[in-house]
Amino acid sequence: MKTSPTDRNDALGQATGTVAKAPALVSLKNVSKTFANGTVALRDMSLDISRGDFVSLLGPSGCGKSTALRIIAGLGDASSGSLAWPVRSPVDDKSGTGGPNQDISFVFQEPTLMPWASVFSNVYLPLRLKGLSRTAAREDVMDALQMVGLESSAGSYPRELSGGMKMRVSIARALVTKPKLLLMDEPFAALDEITRFKLNNDLLHLWEKFGWTVIFVTHSVFESVYLSNRIIVMAARPGRVVQDIAVDAPYPREEEFRTSDTYNDYCRQASQALHSAMEVSEPA
Amino acid sequence: MTMATVDNQHSLSGEKNRKATKSLPEAARWISVAGRMAIPLMMLVLLITAWSLYVWAFDVPHYILPSPMRVAVALYTDWPILAPALLVTLKITFTALTIALVGGVALAVLMAQSRIAERALYPYAVILQVTPIVAIAPLILIYAPSTQAALLICAWIVAFFPILSNTVQGLKSTDHNLLNLFELYGASRWQTLVYLKMPNALPYFLAGLKIAGGLALIAAVVAEFAAGSAGAGSGLAFRLLESQFRLNIPRLFAALFLLSLTGVAIFLTTNTISYLLLRKWHESALKREN
After folding, report:
1. How many domains would you assign to chain A?
2. Which of A124, A197, A202, B110 is most deeply buried (CB count within 10 A of its CB)?
3. Closest listed residue to residue A272, CA positions, set A250, A249, A236, A245
4. A213-265 tens-digit pLDDT
5. Do B181 and A108 touch (CB under 8 A)?
6. Of B281, B282, B284, B289, which to mutate for an interface test with A (greatest number of A Cβ within 10 Å)?
7. B68-285 maps to which CATH number?
8. Is residue B50 left, alpha or beta, with left meaning phi > 0 and alpha meaning psi from -120 to 50?
9. Of A74, A108, A129, the CB nearest to B187
């Protein structure tokens, strides 16, 4: 059983580590975000993400889940509150600002590929921006492509690929830097169900193998239960955390898990949480 | 030995098969190309025939409307006069286009990188563009060191704006998530420009180039009309005017023909460049897949 976020905060704050299973990788404290037009996207969001966790942010649209993800990524600052990386060594944080960038990857809802560049060049991009030559990066790029099963499509252009394959390229690009934290903003929302299930499984296998920390934004109860070991349910207007569900089902999870009782129980629990979140949300 | 021959035969027949399967769509492609060419060509023949018949049937004097044959003859006999004029017009057009290309892109990059530069320069680029070139030409003729330079400036003013405005548009319409991605990976301004904004602006720039190519020629001709220059260094526009004054209408048609030909050549060139650069990825150069 997981501890509640407040307990974990305390444990971390006192640095005694009595309850926390793993040190928090990233910790949000009372983070609020108000947009220029007055919309309160997030209010007082506090959340610790433990290293190695697969955390889903689940909530209705407008609950600030994407905003939270962007703040963690460093794409936009919080209006108030703080973001901390307790276990980050100074080596990881070259900028010295406590900012992210070094070991974070982001997967957007759209594949967000450069249409003029081949699959190889798209995956090569993060390394190219770091100053690596094409030759030096070759092995890493091909490894990343192989992880998503697209090593034979290296020379193709994005327009030649299906929606699912484009998303795989996008994931390969995120993996090529060997990130510690993978942020995914509804990555599979635009895909058909069969492709989504396949990508869910592939993502889980990679996560089990490499042990990154994943923060996964979704509006699908089923997806969040299937993938994650922790679901943060959020309410909208203002965006806030309303429930923190630990999904204590063992990995590896395969297709059978989708029909198991445990899965159904958690789906029911998450659905109810989402419903009550919708009730406390102001109407859109 | 026999095995080898058999193998050879195999590979040969295999080769033949491959060629046969390859040549079939190839032939179909040629037929479709020929089919596409046939209609405009037939139209051309029809028009020239109608033109000839009209001139012949109504006995139209050649100083009003020369027959196509007379135009062809004029093109041949007046070639020593027309060729240098064509060369002058071509030189002005292409020099103006080159400067417009370099200047337009450089200015566009500057404007996309700096809001201050954009605010300072863009309104004046617009003013320069919206003022009719014929109206500015007399002034330019006074200030420019030579008529040639004046013509060049006129052609440049007209050609540079579509390149500038299109390239600025292209540089600014970069996908926001890709920009986020570049920011996330700590890309420098320069890297974002070269790896993201410039490739993104390429189709816009090429659309601008297509317009600018045609406009540069038009401006070179219009400016020469306005300048009314004469003598050894004059271009096709002057030869047109001169032919009109002398009622040498066949030569006027011949000069006109050369101008159209130049325009078509520029159009085809810019279109080909655009196709070659975009064929791998941009919608404009791709066939629909249904």
Report:
1. 2
2. A124
3. A245
4. 999 999 899 999 999 999 999 988 888 888 999 988 888 888 889 889 999 99
5. yes
6. B281
7. 1.10.3720.10
8. alpha
9. A129
